[in-house]
Amino acid sequence: MKKLWIGSTAMALLLAACSSETDEAVQTTDATAAPAEEEGKTEVVFWHAMSGELETALNTLVDDFNASQEEYEVEPVFQGTYEEALTKLNTVAGTEESPAMMQVFEVGTKFMIDSGHIQPVQDFIDEEGFDTSVWEENITNYYSVDGVQYSMPFNSSTPVLIYNKDAFEAAGLDPEQAPMTYSELQEAATALTEGDQKGFSILNYGWFFEELVAAQGGLFVDAENGREGQATEAVFNGEEGLNVFNLIKDMHDEGTFYNSGQNWDDMRAAFQSGATAMILDSSAGVKGMIDNAPFEVGVGYLPVPDDAERNGVIIGGASLWMAEAIDAEQKQGAWEFMKYASSAEAQAQWHVDTGYFAINPAAYDEQVVVDQWEQYPQLKVTVDQLKETQANAATGGALISVFPEARQRVVNAMESLYQGADPQEALDQAAEETNRALEVEAAKNGN
Question: Matching CDD domains, A to Z (predicted)?
Answer without folding.
Answer: PBP2_UgpB (cd14748)
